[in-house]
Every structure is written in C-alpha cells, then in structure tokens.
Amino acid sequence: MATKLQKPEFAYMAGKIVNWDDAVLHIGCEAVTRGLNVFEGIKGYWNNRGEFRIVFLEKHYKRLVRSARLLRIPCPWTFEQYQDAVFQIIGKLLTKERDMWARTTLYVTEGHWGEGTKADLIITAYHQDKVMPEPIHIGVSTWQRATDSALPARIKTSSNYQMGRLARMEGRSRNCSDMILLNSQGRVAEATGSCVLMVRDNVIYTPPASEGALESITLDFIEALAKSMKMPFVRRPVDHTELLIADELGICGTLAELVPIISIDGLPLHPNGPLLTSLRDKFFRVVRGEETDPALELSPIPLTFLKNI
Ligand code: PMP
C-alpha cells in the first residue's frame, strides 16, 4: 500500500519546476528545526477514456488551508494557484502507464516561534501502479494518538506522523504492514495514514474525527458510496475489543484507497468480506470512470500541461 521511495526527476518549489537535487531547504528554517509544515497527499487516476483526473483537489486545498490556519502558517495561495502548481508538476512527470500520488506541502521557510512566518508551496509527485490494494495484516499499536489539546489529529502536519512511524516499526516486528492507534481513552482513533472501517452485523462503522482521526476526504466519499449501495454506515466511537470480533475490517485514505484486512493481531478475518469488497470494487469503478457517482469530484489535467505525453 505504501508508495515506494522514488526519486523523480523534478519537484515544484518557489513557484516553478526545479530539478530534484535543487529542491532543498535551509537547515536554519523552522521547516527543518521544528518540522514545521502542513501538507496534503493527493491522487490522480487515468480513466478508460485516456483522461487523467485528480480527485477531490479542492477539498484537499481547503483542508490544507485549515491545517495552516491552526498552526498560524500564512497561506497566500488561492485554489487556482495551488491547482496550477499541481498541474505543472504532475503534467511534467506523468506517464500513460501509471497513476500519480503527490505530496503538496507548505514548508515554513522564514520566521521564528510564530513571528514573521512565511511558507513555500513545495510539491513532489510519485508514480503509482494501476492496481487495487492487496489485503494486509494489521495490529493495534501500543503507541497512542495524541489528544486534541496535545497534537490535534485534525492538523495534517508532519510532526503528527511520529507516532505513526513508531507504530509502523512496532508493527513490522509483529509482521503487520500497518497499525491502528488507539486514543487516550483506549478507543480506536485511526491507522498510521488512513481511517478505520469496521463491519459488524452488516453495518459499517467508523470512529468520528473527534476520536482522534484526521477529517478524511476518502472516508466521506466511501460513506457516500456505501449509502448509494444501501449499506448502513454509522460514525460512532469504536472500542478496541470490537476490532477483534469484527466481521470485516478495512482502512481507507487517499493513498490507501480501500485496503481489506486479513488479520488483526494474529486473529484471522474474512479477507474478501462481502461489504468492504463490494465497496472497494465500486470505489475503483468510480475513480476509473467506469461508473459515475455524484460524490466524486474531479479535476482533469488540461492538455496544455501534458506536453510530454
Ligand atoms: N489519517 C491519517 C493519519 C492520514 O494521513 C490520512 C491520509 N491523508 C487519512 C487518515 C485519510 O485521509 P484522506 O482520506 O483525506 O486521505
């Protein structure tokens, strides 16, 4: 599920396309000294008519602006400027054979302890195979999601991923590809880079963001798809033990898409459970343009940005 580490030829920085090796930050800036940034991971898919379309771009922009507001990072980019930057770098690197995932980050390049803060929009984009995600083994981590008064999950900032990194390393030693983090109350928060879906007695449950999850764009989309398929979908707190007796489990997010879970802490689960498998199949039919759904928002890259293809 994770994007393999790649070193693309170009990145976007300081308002233009630059060579990968020139995309560097100064060691003195707060982006480096305090890991100060906010970011969004965005995904684009080829459809079967040969159009490349980025999904939910405006929603990602709005969440980026909200994260920046919470950390008091000025974001002078309008949506149109943000979109143009995304189109430029994706248009530069895109090939017909593969989809793309891009990280759009506001790195704080000037200022000190909240005074004189300025950021730069930096974008890196990576190729992704056009395949459906494979089912994975997952565990519950001993690391906890921070609370809203410590490091709010609502802010998509790199420092929020330290627990996720520790949890993934813990998971690796237990043969798990990803891990679920609990909140300070011992209830389910989210996975390291995605939200949790649980099926019990033909109802899909997911914890609300106030349990310590990012306000996920994919989750809203999956909820809309589930409702269009007449599957009951409920947001409510989820206990740790419910995960262990669930009929089906999955995780979802922009990068994860919808990954079914084969086992949790060594307890086997139905890998092709009926609800999450049909939701995953629907998800891919819709993003690939084989079916339409009013919940999907698309930004097709204009041909002018695709000179290399
Ligand atoms: N939680 C975390 C910690 C994430 O990093 C992500 C991925 N952005 C998600 C949930 C899912 O959010 P989205 O569906 O908006 O990508």
Describe the structure.
The chain is an alpha+beta fold and 309 residues long. It has helices at 30-33, 57-70, 79-93, 162-173, 217-228, 240-244, 274-287, and strands at 10-13, 16-19, 37-46, 52-55, 99-112, 115-128, 136-144, 178-182, 188-191, 195-200, 203-206, 233-235, 248-253, 257-264, 267-268, 298-300. A hairpin with a 5-residue loop joins strand 8 and strand 9. The strands form three sheets. Strands 7, 8, 9, 10, 11, 12, 13, 14 and 15 form a nine-stranded mixed sheet that branches. It has seven helices and 16 strands. 41% of the residues are buried. The mean pLDDT is 96. It is 25% helix and 32% strand. The structure holds 4'-deoxy-4'-aminopyridoxal-5'-phosphate. 4'-deoxy-4'-aminopyridoxal-5'-phosphate is lined by residues 41, 190, 193-195, 213-214, 216-219, 253-254.
Task: Please specify the SSE layout and strand pairing.
Layout: E1 10-13, E2 16-19, H1 30-33, E3 37-46, E4 52-55, H2 57-70, H3 79-93, E5 99-112, E6 115-128, E7 136-144, H4 162-173, E8 178-182, E9 188-191, E10 195-200, E11 203-206, H5 217-228, E12 233-235, H6 240-244, E13 248-253, E14 257-264, E15 267-268, H7 274-287, E16 298-300
Parallel strand pairs: 7-8, 7-14, 11-12
Antiparallel strand pairs: 1-2, 3-4, 3-5, 4-16, 5-6, 8-9, 10-11, 10-13, 13-14, 14-15
Bound molecules: 4'-deoxy-4'-aminopyridoxal-5'-phosphate (PMP).
